[in-house]
Amino acid sequence: MTVEVDRFRRECYRRGAELAGLLGDWTAGPGPLYRKLADALARAAEEGALRAGERLPAERELATALAVSRATVVGAYDELRARDVVERRQGSGTRVRRGRRPPRSDGRVRGGQAGRIFQRLIDGPGPLISLACAAEGGAGEVADALDEVAAHDIGALLGTHGYYPRGLPALREAIAEYHSARGLPTHPDEVLVTTGAHQALVLVAEVYLRRSATVVVESPSWPACLDVFRAQGAELVPVPLDGEGIDPRPLAAALAEHEPALLYVMPTYHNPTGLMTSEARRRRVVELAAKWDVPVLEDNAYAGRALAPDAVDLPPLAAYAPPEAEVVTVESLGKAVWGGLRVGWVRAPVELIERCARRKALADLGTPVIDQAVAARLVPRMGEISRRRAVDQRERFALLERLLRERLPEWTWRRPDGGSSLWVALPGESADVFAQLALRHGVEVIPGSAMDPTGAHDNHLRIPFTHPPEVLAEVVDRLARAWTELRRHGPRDVPRLHPIV
């Protein structure tokens, strides 16, 4: 009975948290909270994000998720009934009225947990400081490479048709040399250039996954990546991390029990924890995958983002794989050089590259060739670019740690090996609730529930240190004010959530 009650409470809380994420920055602007909440819910119904007949969370559920009083939600629901947006039926709760004309398009970004992150990129900057995107400006070398392409390459490029679905030959050669130098011998035929690492994940998922397939993933992981697999109809089986990477015992059990179509890991500066999977663990992961005949998809989007001055990235998992293992490596220039180039790649066996290339050709006929020519001149310099940029990275990281220790000494985290953010634990509080209070103080944070559906990290936040120092100082100041409000005034009745197994 206790398990069923816990399951019910957890589901109720989840519904409120999902709706809270859908509403976004609903507290902005003048007016009483109940009216702003009513406006946000009415807008969601008008745009189709809330469907006709859909049941809204109970007042207490939504109040808990939004960190407001129950009276605020009651007032908002009353306002919506007066506007004829919702109706209340005995025993059926509050529902969006049927008979409302569905919109042609709501204009908002879909995509599961990652949707609100991508929506923030579309909405653009504003008074709200968003911590949804852990990316920084481009390296100065990009301008140099552009000049070199204009001076030496543009004439030859214009003399071609410009379509390279597998990628510009010069870039594929540069990527092959880059991997070979890092301990993973690679031929250009084993490389496919993509429009960023995200497209690479999509193409690989399309090749491997069929509806109702299973993908074993790390827990936590990044929601935009998980949504790629969900979009293919896959079911996700989460496996926890320890201090060396994905935990081999539950991994072995998951591979044996579920016979997954794919194992997805981020071994080099895992997002969001910043963990570097150890060499011994890399060997163990590929051995287990080979034993159970499960292909491995490794996402090394944060390669080159070490924090320690003397740190050296380990070779990709594929470098440790036995001959019978199948390992697909995804990487990009997004984090190391500049996301604006939108150049990523897949390194895999030739047969898989051919399958991905056919899908790439159908998607866009090839990544823009000028961008590829610039990337071809940048890939050989990635080591020096990473070393130079690491100086600023370490300074911002040290500043964020110092500010958090000074202003929020109760918060804890494991020092990351690399990457772009801290994975912070809040003592005894729901990060979903805190995220709502942080919005009212002008900061958008991504709570742990978006990155781990098991509930094991519901008290975690990801805080990037990619912003300039003055912005980081303002971020911590706003977070500290939101934390003080939460600790002094509640709510305290957030259900403590535990995974149901």
TrEMBL record:
Domain of life the protein comes from: Bacteria
Species classification: Bacteria, Bacillati, Actinomycetota, Actinomycetes, Pseudonocardiales
Domain HTH gntR-type: 31-99
Region listing for Disordered, in residue ranges: 89-111
Keyword entries, A-Z: Aminotransferase, Antibiotic biosynthesis, DNA-binding, Pyridoxal phosphate, Transcription, Transcription regulation, Transferase
Transmembrane segments: none
Gene Ontology process terms (BP): antibiotic biosynthetic process
SMART domains cross-referenced by the UniProt entry: HTH_GNTR (SM00345)
Pfam annotation, one family: GntR
GO MF entries: DNA binding; DNA-binding transcription factor activity; pyridoxal phosphate binding; transaminase activity
Organism: Amycolatopsis arida
The protein, known as: DNA-binding transcriptional regulator, MocR family, contains an aminotransferase domain
PROSITE patterns noted in UniProt: HTH_GNTR
